[in-house]
Amino acid sequence: MFLMGGTVRKYFVRFCVSFTAILLFIQFSPFAPWLLNRLVGSDWNNPDGDILIVLTADEPPDAVMGTMTYPRGLYGVRAWRGGHFHAVVVCGSEAAATGQFLNAYGVPREKIFLEERSAGTRECALQTRRMIASWPGRRVLVTGDTHIFRAKRAFQAAGLPVEARPFPDLLKYWDGQQWRIPESMRLFNEIGKIGYYWVRGWIRL
Predict the structure, then answer these.
(1) How many domains does the chain have?
(2) What is the pTM of this model?
(3) Which of 15, 75, 111, 143 sits at 20 to 30 Å (Cα–Cα) from 45?
(4) What is the pLDDT along the chain (205 residues), one digit of tens a residue?
């Protein structure tokens, strides 16, 4: 029993040291921003187009936008104001609240089209394709930097090619030391989702 207890303590100490080293690496190294920029690649170009697609986060529908959806709506407004789009498609569980937000900040109501049945990125891609596949023009997809790699490829795999227009999400928070670990965890979780989508054949890497 004494030997077993000593062995347990030894592995516990090793675990604590390794865990602390990982946290320090995440907190003080540029690894997460580097990895994110590798995922986004050359998509930091803010393309203009004809149809703007704004993805809402997978949050419970409410009368107001959730904290994950709000920046997507905000950058959707900015894309509309700075571009020449003639339609905005809002997809996901918070599409109604996001559509109201877009309208309140200048997007004409008749230019906003809602797809509210989807729960998840792949469903958004499939349902949006059914809605707008016959619409002519360039399609531009707005979502956060962490999400854009999977989202763009999910739309392409669904048969609806889009141009990516990511906005700085993780990168915006990175200057705040208190956000680095939670934002890194969100990035690593997204990488897990990318792997899952790839295994299921829902995206191509």
Answers:
(1) 2
(2) 0.87
(3) 111
(4) 444 456 777 777 777 777 777 777 777 778 888 999 999 988 898 999 999 999 998 777 667 788 889 999 999 999 999 999 999 999 998 999 999 999 999 999 999 999 998 989 999 999 999 999 999 999 999 999 999 999 999 999 999 999 999 999 888 888 888 888 888 998 999 999 999 999 999 999 8
Is residue 178 situated within a structural domain?
no
Asked if 122 and 55 sit in the same domain, the reply is yes
Q: Which domain holds residue 111?
A: 44-172
